[in-house]
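Hey, quick one: can you model this chain's 3D structure?
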Amino acid sequence: MKVGLSSISLMLLALAIASPAVAQQACQAVADGLRSGTSALAYSPAQTIAKTEAIETLRSQFHATPRLVEAIRRLAEYSYSVSFQRFGSSSLHMAVALQGSAGCQFITFFATAPDGASDLVDALPPILRDKPEGSMLPCSGAGSLAHAGTAGGAPAFVVDIGADQDEEFNITPWRDGAWQKACTVAIHYGATFTVADQSCEGVDCVKVSALARDLAMKFDSDPKSLTRVKDPSPEFTGPADLPTFRPVIDHDTFASEAIATPVTFDGRQYIARLGHRAIGWRIFPGYLFGLYRQVGDRLEPLAGIRIDKTRDKPVDITVK
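Sure thing. Here's the predicted structure for all 320 residues.
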């Protein structure tokens, strides 16, 4: 018996009263894979096309209904392109358009019926349906990115939310024509600190770099562990460029939370500035270190060091 689009749409609109077991099984498989060094997450490849061609692709490749065509037309209105992804081998797809400097993803879901026609899926995964108003999710610039794929072999919508040493995979399986209850795999990673760039004048750059790395690790572990300079110079307040003694194209900037701290180096007293690296409003996990000496009423820069902070192996994995 041929199933009509209206029947398919009704099935897709219905949210099943799902057991949490479906999601828990998927999340447990992902957690076990992370612990063993394998992966139970598989993201589907994206077919990215110019928005001017998106409607024709919908009609020729997906045999889209008029309401799906209109939904994708609205989705792509303020974007240059549209990406299509399939959820594993299921009939579910998603269309994604990027907007804004934060790389925010705007998403429309659709499914293909047995007769080959595709229609809009109105229901949203819980993380999109229930997100706080105004929240930047999913936006790569704010540390989150959505994927279509499989988790533990099950079709699933996955939002990777990560910052510094912590990452979460919010996983919503798709089963029986409906989104299931979501679950989360939370990971805390170790960290590796590496001197990525150094520029000095009048001091031993190797020694200063080692000092910078040690202080960055100490500050990262406990921001209150370093002594603050009382009444620091205006040069140490607010964003500022990292000192450099060679031509540069991109200026690394201290984030506004950077501190001024007294340091002793080779038996002499200096002032250091230490804080996260920033570019505009984006703040990165790595650190910048500037070394200065007091010369009369002014501060003379002696060194500018960049310390990258990267994730190491997982140290804790929790399924919620």
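One thing worth noting: The two ends are 42 Å apart (CA to CA).
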